[in-house]
Amino acid sequence: MTLLALHLDRTSDNPLYLQIYDQLKMAILAGKIAPGTRLPSSRQLAQAYGVGRITVTQAYRQLEMEGYVYGRTGAGTFVTDDLPLSAGAAAVPFVPALSAWGERVMAIGKDGRTPSGLRPEIDFGFGRSFPHIFPYDVWRRLLARYLSTDDAMLSRYGSVAGFYPLRQALADYLQRLRGVRCTAGQVVIVSGVQQALDILARLLLAAGDGVLVETPGYVDAFALFRLHGCRLLALPVGAHGFPVAQIPADCRARLAYVTPSNQFPRGGAMPLKAQLVLLQWARQHKALIVEDDYDGELRYEGRPLAALQGLDTDGRVVYLGTFSKVLFPALRLSYVVLPRALVTPFVRAKGLVDRGAPTLTQAAVADFITEGHFERHLKHLRQAYGQRRQALVAALERYLPGKVQYVAALAGLHVMLYLSPQVDEAQLVQEAAQAGVGVYPGRPYHVQEDAPPSILLGFSGLAEPEIEEGIRRLAAIWA
Fold it and tell me: Domains along the chain?
């Protein structure tokens, strides 16, 4: 009979019986208590450690239910005899053998978008929301509406395609304000644009297929297409977005990924003529166009531009949209509008990897849209973010006149600054971080190796005085 040295912490939130159970279990697995060993009686162990006998009994009962020990009437509690333990053997850490797909994941690695170290005092990170703008009181009320009921919606899994009232609300909104032509049946709710791109790539692309992309462009999309073994056919964008006229005559790309309403990250919109030419190219080459409308609602002059998808007459455009930029990033809800021929394959594929986004959240978003809160919020965002963009542009003109170039489009949540050729992009980012200013390198967003030096400045998460102070510090580093 062995009396082990147990270490019980009476200040811990972990119950004493679980502490006894855990330590005895680990001792058995490590071979410190040999198979067949008789454990102290519950009375003896309780007296030794000043605990109630019921505490030890609970620990022994749990060990017996899991097979570590067994009891013999009138004889006591014993460690199970035939446990296949390797007593005293050195631990050999498991090193998984990755598949080819897993090796590509590791090869892609990090893109260097986030400066190292602590979060800077003034962070020009893009895609962030200003916390005081969103109507959280309305959001809490909408969530409480469903939490306070016994609605059957909460007692079952939701649809893989998404909560139907949200899909209907989105179809109505997109037709009315974005020029998207669709029905609710073509709308599918996804957990972020990356999920939609991943499913589309799995359904439509094979290793070696070409994908037309913009450079600079969305680095996470680049990584995902490469992960599926595709070849990136990158065209450098200008002030008017994707250069359709530069698509090679012999291009056989299966898919074109574009951001026509406001090119990411450089800025600028694709003219109507270029959009029509791109549609003609897709028709001639039997290709698909993926339109990522990541911030199309956020234009600060006139109405948002109509979507490219609305010009499509034969089902060659997939439209992607997100709530992350206009509601809040942690929501993790996006949506895809599919050509009719793709709806069934997409939903079936999604059902194999994801049962669907949280229905409760989708229901609240649906009410947020149908009750008019969404469009009122967008109006507020356009005003607030438009003022922040003006503050950023004014600060650039005041502190860095003639030293940077950027697209003057009145849209989006960030500005990409092209620097003088002699400026060291990485050094500028590092020195800015040392001055308490977080700016982001543009290099990862370019496909070509000889990318011009650039940095990205997001303004959506900063107040106007912070924007001006950040640019003032950046200019001081420049000087």
Answer: 16-79 (1.10.10.10), 104-129+376-478 (3.90.1150.10), 136-371 (3.40.640.10)
